[in-house]
Amino acid sequence: KLAAEALLDHVIGTVEPDDPGPYDINILGEFNLSGEFWLVKPLLDRLGIRVRACIPGDARYRDIASAHRARAAMMVCSTALISLARKMEERWDIPFFEGSFYGISDTSQALRNLVRLLVRKGADPEILERTETLIAQQEAIAWKKLEPYRQRLQGKRVLLNTGGV
């Protein structure tokens, strides 16, 4: 909470970006401990969505300082920086949602939520259709890769520890 307040009071909003756009987002609470976010970023790139700042993640000072110009935000770890998301929504009207990039359906839903917020903030609605096309393609690829394991793992339980702080 203290880190979020320090960012809000002394960093975010201190730099105006050269090229703000209708597809700029912030990812909040993404620590990218094992490089997980690098697997998701190509999906955002294919949709033309630019990550203005990934806080704390891989962000650079200038990215964080201009994060106030994002059009939407995704809160990945709500315990870490939820106050930052709420205050950025209050100050700069950056809507956010809590989501996850872990798992096929969660990733698909996160992409849908992001583009809905972007459209609500003025992005071209055609991104909704492009997102559904991308999701269908990527889900088909993922399910095909998992097929060889389906019979052996059907009905089994597993615990996944996906990182975290």
Keywords summarizing the entry:
6 helices; 4-stranded parallel sheet; 165 residues; 52% helix; alpha/beta; Rossmann fold
Mean pLDDT: 92
Beta fraction of the residues? 5-15%
Tell me the domain tally. 1
Give the second-level CATH assignment, the architecture. 3-Layer(aba) Sandwich
Q: The CATH topology, please?
A: Rossmann fold
Give the uncertain stretches in residue-range form.
none
Alpha carbon gap, first and last residue: 15 Å
What structural class do the secondary elements suggest? alpha/beta
Radius of gyration using CA atoms only: 17 Å
Q: What is the C-level CATH assignment?
A: Alpha Beta
Largest sheet: 4 strands, parallel
H and E string: HEHEHEHEHH
Model description:
This protein is of the alpha/beta class and 165 residues long. The protein has one domain (2-153): 3-Layer(aba) Sandwich (Rossmann fold), CATH 3.40.50. It has helices at 2-10, 37-47, 61-65, 78-92, 104-120, 126-153; strands at residues 24-30, 50-56, 72-75, 96-98. α1 (2-10) runs parallel beside α4 and α5 packs antiparallel against α6 (126-153).
Quick structural summary:
52% of the residues lie in helices and 13% in strands.
Secondary structure layout:
Blueprint: H1 2-10, E1 24-30, H2 37-47, E2 50-56, H3 61-65, E3 72-75, H4 78-92, E4 96-98, H5 104-120, H6 126-153
Parallel strand pairs: 1-2, 1-3, 3-4
Helix pairs in contact: 1-4, 5-6
